[in-house]
Each structure stands twice: as structure tokens, then as C-alpha cells.
Amino acid sequence: MCGIVGIVSHSPVNQSIYDALTVLQHRGQDAAGIVTWGEDGLRQRKSNGLVRDVFRHRHMLRLSGNVGIGHIRYPTAGGSRASEAQPFYVNSPYGICLGHNGNLTNYDELAELLSKEDRRHLSTGSDSEVLLNVFAHELQNRVNGKPTPDQVWAAVEAVHERCKGGYAVVALIVGIGIVAFRDPNGIRPLVLGGRTTDKGNEYMVASESVALDVLQFERLRDVKPGETVFIENDGTLHTREHHDAVRHTPCIFEFVYFARPDSILDNLSVYKTRLRMGEQLAGKIVRDFPDHDIDVVIPIPDTSRTSAVQVAHHLGTKYREGFIKNRYIGRTFIMPGQAERSKSVRQKLNAIDLEFRGKNVLLVDDSIVRGTTSRQIIRLAREAGAKKVYFASAAPPVRYPNVYGIDMPAASELIANGRSIEEIQELIGADRLIYQDLHGLVRSVRHDNSHITEFDTSCFSGEYVTGDVTEEYLDEVERRRNDAAKQQREARRMGYEATDASDANSAGTAVGM
Question: pTM for the whole thing?
Fold first, then answer.
């Protein structure tokens, strides 16, 4: 999962993009990058690390210009080398920089076609570089001079025809403006905002509405599935909808885990969906465990708090904060290896003994992926003196990999893959395990927007909405995503680190800062 932002303004955008990236930091902690355009030309800074670590005062001073895009990343495809931090750049036509959130399911096929037929060189293993080169190739084939909105739209339509999977894209065309678009299924989120100043209209696109809120842009609407948004450097806005009928299926896991609760995605409040998840989960607990002896409901911070409050309310039990979180430890879900994830759990959470001692405790989490964290948290609760430890997940069992931009582990590393609820319960060490039903989750999320009748629920159901995900593809995902493969890539990355640092940490134009 990644976060993207693009701004066309009448004043410098460097600080605004930085601020937007900081509130999108939950979407990726691997790398960050900003590209700006102005009178001084194209300026770029990108490297591995958190936003606050990548951008120093000297970098911000060099990022001049009133137009810019930003990206924060964790790797889904490719690796973690600094040279694979985004935005990526190609110099023809015009010079284009691109940031991408999602994953192309036909990456291998596209990479081969780009090399053999489009005669474009790829220097990384990132599908974002592939997407950039496809867009650049299609735009170059259609323009002779300054591109018109129709030519930009036609180029994006060609991208939709060639690229499969889930993607939200923001691209800066040097001297022209910003282009943003979303995959035809609207799997990955993208929001459009605007504001009026004394100098004219300013526009912004971002992965989540919270980034617009922080910068005081009005949330205009979500970018529609397959829609193209083209904002010229002078602030002129053009939009074109995708010409084919679409099946709007946004990713439901955004609402379960990734998005901030104060965001609105596809006209749905993430906060309210999580409240309803708690209501649905409480109903499931009452049905499956009618004679429960739960003394207290305790959330696993932070994402599950909203749901846990509702669970406690509807069960008529106490709600307590039983874990204190070290906020300087990253999300274990997106840490690179099993050993690192296991080590981080105790560094991240500490139990308040008095909330556990002698009590029957219901722990509520947003989801269970590998089960490693759940098992260790249950152990922490028992060590703190809990008499019984029940565990509830606000999401259904995660049994299948996500292939549309969430780097879930290989299927063999998902604790629910091929296992019954009873087997999972035993593995994590709970006295009882309760999962949300899939229909309850869907009902929780779609409540406010009747226009969205379906979601991408592939990690729960195994049904992939783009229709092109085969068993062979999933086998390849398994091979690439297992922890052993990631550890090998990490070892290779360490070997390249010194070279990457010299490329990515210098300052200047778009080919290096």
C-alpha cells in the first residue's frame, strides 16, 4: 500500500506536499519522495525512510515550484532499494514523473512488451516504472506539441486497456500540469479537492481525504473508476470519465485496516464503517456465544478501537484500554521479516496489569493476517493476569493473498489459509475466537452509499474482481512474497545500498537530488 498526492497551486507546494505525506504516512514507511516544477525547472528528492527523515531543511529549500507530486511507499512489487523510491521519471515526452498506489497483475507481460515492442528500458523491478512507461509511450504516440485534454484522456484510456490490476496514479508532465487517474474498478482510492484563492483556483488529488483536510482543501468528490483528472499548471481543471461501463469494486480492506478513521473514501466514512463493524461483530458474538462471561472488552491499538467501543456497548460490558502503544514502532503488518515482526510486538505494546488481572477479557482486533501478533498479544494478556482470553476479529478470516496493492504475505503464511476457526483458535492460544462474517462486513461498509453494491473482498473470499487472476499467477505471488524471498531481496538491497545512496540523496534535477 502506498500514498500519493498531487497539487497545482499559485504558491510554492513543497511544504503542502510534505504535510500531506505526513498524514498519509500510515500507508507506507519504506520510502518517500517529492517532485516539484517551477521557474527553476524540475526538482526532486526521494529516498528510503519516513517522511520526516527523508526531507531536511536543505531539501525543502530546493523543492521550488507551484506544481508538484509526492509519494510514500512500502514495496508490493520490486524491492526496497532507494533507487526504487518514487516518483519515477522518464524524459520523453516532455519529462514525466509518476507515483502509483496499487499493483499491476500483468506486470511481467507488460515489462516484456515495453522492452521488445515499445523499446523502452526498465531499470527497476517496480510495476510503477512499467505503468509510467506505458503512459509515456501512449502519450507520445498521440501528441505533437502541447497535449490537449482529449489527447491526455486518450493516452490514459490506452493505459486502462493495457494495464490490469488495481492502481491510483498521479503524474506530473513537465511544463504542462498534473494527470491523475484510477483503475476502471476503482479498487485503489483517489480523492479530488479544490479551493479558491485571490490568484485563482487550486486543486489537489490524494489517496485519502484527510490529506485534503489538513491543507484546507475542500473535498470535491472521489475520482470515479477509470476517470482522468487533468489539471493544467494555470489551475484549469479537465475531467473525463472512462468510456466503458465499470464495475465499481473498491478495496474493502481500506476500511478494515489501512485508511485513517477520519478519511472519507468513495463517499463512505471510514469511522462510521468501523463503528458498524463493531455492531455487526457484537451481534455475531451474541449469536455464537450467548452465555458469554466477558468481563471487559479491550482493543488492540489503534485501528480496532472504534469497533471495540461498539462491541462493548452492545454487549453491555466494560470497555478499557489495556495496552499502551509505543508510537515510534512501525506497523508489524508491513515489516519485512518474521523475526522482525515478532521482535517488534513486545517493543510496541505493553499491558496494563490491573485491567487484566483475574478477568475474562475479550480482545478485539481489526483483522488477523499471519497470526503472529495475535498470538503474542494473547500471551501478553495472560502474563498480565487474565483468567480467560477471548479474541474477536472485526474482519472475516484472511485466507487469500491480496494482489491489488496490499502486500499481504504468501497464502501459506496466512494463518487462516486452509485452517478451520478451531485450528486458528488453538494456534493463537485463545480460549475462544470469533470472526466477523463477510456479509456483515460488507453491510457495515456499504451502508452510506447505495451506489456501491460490491467490493473487492478477494483476501477473504478468493474472488478477484478483475477476472484475470489465475492459479498460475497466485503461485507466482506465493513464490515472490514468502518471507524467504523477501529476506533474499533484503540481502541484495544491502549490497546495493551505498550505490543507491549516492544516486538518491544528491540534490538537483529530476534525475537525482
Answer: 0.90
